[in-house]
């Protein structure tokens, strides 16, 4: 079990000598992880928020780089009573101080996708897309947002692994990115920032994916696991199958939350919030993010914006009031919520007909990216750079387990995951993984 001390004078002095980013531009207590839950200080923290991408993915727009976009939405966020937003696209070449400080003033944390369409892991050809140019963009995003204390976490990938078994081969590369991001943060920042994966809710590989991101050496494992769930369609805890998912994830060993949730088959009443805040779930889940804030082509949103530049008036739909009412009626519970105080790893999944990964070894960090650990990433390429998906070689070398460890532990060993235990990678059969370890077969 690790020390719960956030910093020591000696660690801080060493960080400065190593060129660690020291700038802190928002005044809000950072979110940390301990056991299988999140905390702000000593208080349990639940994710109670929305997915936020005005204009949708096709707009290729950064809503946090323009105060004319974020400011009116933050006023709406206050009305909703949320505490977290997820932003999918951000421009790492721009300044975000105004929006990030406005969010901090409102008590709102931010979870960010570190990738964008031009700089991301290609699930069909993952090896060439894992390269120094790609990591420079990822690290530049961390540099830009890591200086704000209300940056809660980064996603190393979103639904890269999907329903086709071939896509599971990309898991090694996404996990390598997770390792690299965590190493970069521990090396260059004086506070913990969480890193995890946002998974698709695919029945055939949901539990293998979860296990994979929490197996192996400490440096390779995620700080949390999140997935996108659309199974609650104005339903209930049992009919939706959420009871089985809670059972499956019991004793998983990391914090879990829903990075997207929603269903529009019926009129939305947001009963998910009641379930997420109930004793049925709080010992295993730490909340979730409602998909989504703005009404786009997929028709999930609760606010419309007529202006294509996303700067016009915001019109609240009926679902806005319904969501706000659910948030008010079902507040975050007090106390521990039944959370476990100790984090632990799980066995790695073995190859089967749904999981085509037969090695626990991860790709080695590209040689050209290692300089960023000491020098910093520099200015990012933004959302319109030349791209990186074909910049790497067709094959990569594997790294030894523990390659992402930081000498002296970095900030991570002191504070990011209190109570985190190191465990060597283990292998078990798919049957043991799905039944014995996690309690029940996934839906």
UniProtKB/TrEMBL annotation:
Cleaved signal peptide residues: 1-18
Localization (cell): Cell membrane
Short name of one Pfam family: Glyco_hydro_72
GO CC annotation: plasma membrane; side of membrane
Domain of life of the source: Eukaryota
Keyword terms, alphabetized: Glycoprotein, GPI-anchor, Lipoprotein, Membrane, Signal, Transferase
Functional summary from the UniProt entry: Splits internally a 1,3-beta-glucan molecule and transfers the newly generated reducing end (the donor) to the non-reducing end of another 1,3-beta-glucan molecule (the acceptor) forming a 1,3-beta linkage, resulting in the elongation of 1,3-beta-glucan chains in the cell wall.
Record-given protein name: 1,3-beta-glucanosyltransferase
């Amino acid at each position: 079990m690790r020390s719960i001390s956030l910093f020591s004078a000696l660690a801080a002095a060493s960080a400065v000598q190593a060129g660690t980013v020291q700038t802190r531009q928002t005044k809000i207590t950072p979110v940390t992880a301990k056991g299988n839950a999140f905390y702000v200080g000593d208080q349990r923290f639940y994710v109670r928020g929305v997915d936020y991408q005005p204009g949708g993915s096709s707009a290729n727009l950064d809503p946090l780089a323009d105060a004319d976009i974020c400011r009116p939405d933050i006023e709406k966020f206050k009305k909703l009573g949320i505490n977290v937003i997820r932003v999918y696209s951000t421009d790492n070449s721009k300044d975000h101080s105004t929006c990030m400080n406005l969010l901090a003033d409102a008590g709102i944390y931010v979870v960010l996708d570190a990738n964008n369409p031009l700089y991301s892991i290609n699930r069909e050809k993952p090896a060439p897309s894992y390269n120094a140019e790609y990591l420079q963009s990822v690290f530049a995003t961390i540099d830009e947002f890591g200086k704000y204390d209300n940056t809660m976490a980064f996603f190393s990938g979103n639904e890269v692994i999907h329903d086709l078994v071939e896509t599971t081969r990309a898991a090694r590369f996404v996990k390598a990115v997770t390792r690299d991001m965590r190493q970069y943060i521990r090396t260059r920042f004086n506070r913990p920032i969480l890193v995890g994966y946002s998974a698709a809710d695919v029945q055939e590989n949901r539990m293998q994916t979860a296990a994979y991101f929490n197996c192996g050496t400490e440096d390779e494992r995620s700080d949390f696991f999140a997935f996108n769930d659309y199974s609650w369609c104005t339903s209930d805890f049992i009919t939706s199958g959420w009871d089985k998912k809670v059972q499956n994830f019991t004793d998983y060993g990391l914090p879990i939350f829903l990075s997207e949730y929603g269903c529009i088959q019926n009129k939305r009443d947001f009963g998910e919030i009641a379930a997420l805040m109930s004793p049925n779930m709080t010992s295993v889940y730490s909340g979730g993010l409602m998909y989504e804030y703005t009404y786009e082509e997929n028709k999930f949103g609760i606010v419309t914006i007529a202006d294509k530049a996303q700067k016009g008036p915001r019109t609240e739909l009926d679902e806005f009031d319904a969501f706000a009412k659910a948030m008010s009626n079902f507040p975050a519970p007090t106390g521990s919520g039944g959370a476990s105080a100790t984090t632990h790893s799980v066995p790695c999944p073995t190859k089967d007909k749904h999981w085509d990964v037969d090695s626990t070894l991860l790709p080695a960090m590209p040689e050209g990216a290692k300089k960023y650990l000491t020098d910093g990433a520099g200015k990012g390429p933004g959302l319109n750079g030349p791209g990186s998906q074909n910049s790497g070689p067709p094959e990569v070398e594997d790294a030894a387990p523990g390659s992402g460890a930081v000498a002296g532990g970095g900030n991570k060993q002191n504070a990011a995951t209190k109570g985190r235990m190191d465990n060597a990678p283990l292998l078990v059969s798919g049957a043991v993984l799905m039944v014995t370890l996690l309690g029940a077969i996934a839906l």
